[in-house]
Predict the structure.
Amino acid sequence: MTVLTLTDVADTDQRASAADRLLNLVMRYGLSAFGPIAVSGAHFVASIVFLHAFSRSDFGLFSFLLVVVPFCLSLNGALLGVSISCHAARSGGASAGDIGTHLKINLLFAAAAFAAVFALLWAVGAPLLLATVLGAYGSIMTLRWFARCFAYQQHRPFAPVTSDILYSVLVIAPIVALALLHELTAARAAFVLLGAASLGFVAFGRHYIARQFWPGREGSLWSYGAIWRDMTRWSLMGVALTEMTANAHAYLVTLISGPGAFAVLAVGALLMRPVSLVYAALPDLERPVIARAIVAGDHVRAFRIVKEFRTAVGAMWVATILLAGTILIWFPHLVLKNGYGEGQALIVAAIFAAIMAVRAIRTPEAVLLQAAREYRPLARASLWSSLVSLVTTLLLLLAAGPIASLGGILAGEALMTGNILALSRRWRASHG
């Protein structure tokens, strides 16, 4: 007969508790990451098809689009996602007026996103129709992005996942079909992207769409002024400076040397696409959870969530590196077409892997500081790194070409990560 001691029971409970925490961690990140991974996979497949079907210039143009539009999404998150998260974290949650204000600002931002995407693409040589359709795509994607963020605040995680999956399927299926029929053109690809974004937005339901386009009398544009002064002007500045740090090469190379020159960098960046999109999407899930823990005074829980976040991001980085290695070793023909050399792809992929590793270290701590509403220190921490990235990237581009310009991005990322880790240590020490 086996006799269980109190120690045995305690050990069993601890193991069960640890297993439950691990299961909850996998489920939470698995659900939140599944949608972004599907979107990333769709963009990856589409980019591979574009690489084989388009000229170097058109491939570079669409690759530039997939830099500009995510920047619009990041700006949307800083302008609206951060503030709606903080309002939702308060006792009683966001009011009807708060929600109405955010929906109205979101409409204005979508119009601004259209204008910005259109202007940038037209400036680098896109035809008028193509720039217009892709501008509309960028606009709808920003509406969809806020809808995702709002659904998370309303504890409806399946709505964003459904939207992401629908968008992904509607990108991949038509583009692959058109390519197999040898009917794929840049204009048709643009209409496919616009249609996928529009139908992905519809997935949030008729009630939400009606509320988005006709917010009613609740809330006002003027009400956003206080939110802007207290919070979002600093978060917006931080995102803009972070973009300058992270993607100065995309804008400088494309505007100075043309989309064809940026295509060389885009080939290597393709391999890092999964982890980069996850980096962008997971903060929208974790920021409100950390914010609620901080508001409740439960800093231990907030720190634990940051640790789990770091584990998930690190695991995604490892998985992406393994995928990239598999492609480069066994399926190099996927990314080495149209005159792109193997040596170039390997160098660019290695530099991007290092850049993503640095971001993996920084991102969880940055989200902690955002949840703690430390927007001004974050913006200041990004200032010098953005200047270093911009100046170094420009000098390396002019002196040694597009691939060398990535060294400026790595330098800026490293400096920003060091600044944010120092801020996080100080905040933790004063709230631990």
